[in-house]
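Entry 12.
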Amino acid sequence: MPQTDNLVGIDLGIKTFATFSNGTKVDAPKPLKKRIKKLRKLSKSLSNKTRGSKRYEKARLRVAKFHAELKDTRMDFLHKLSTKIIRENQTIVLEDLFAKHLRWKRFWNGEKP
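Predicted 3D structure (tokens):
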């Protein structure tokens, strides 16, 4: 890859997947939200079946296949995003805050959690 002098800082967040130092925001893929709703429906259908029955096994396989598709969707999104970031920038800096530690740090400084 050609060398560039670009650098970017990335803040991983809760509401947006990532926010770049140049102001660009990346949301999680929209198909993922629709798929999660379908997963809920399939899981509920599975829970209503009697364990050990043929219909239970069919439903279990449907849920397992859907989990694999969901995983593939997530991995595809991550691979495309990471490849794009690497091609455009030479230096990449990530910031990810662990909220639990922040809460306790405030508590020990005298603030109420």
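Annotation: The CA atoms of residues 35 and 70 lie 7 Å apart. The longest strand covers residues 7-12.
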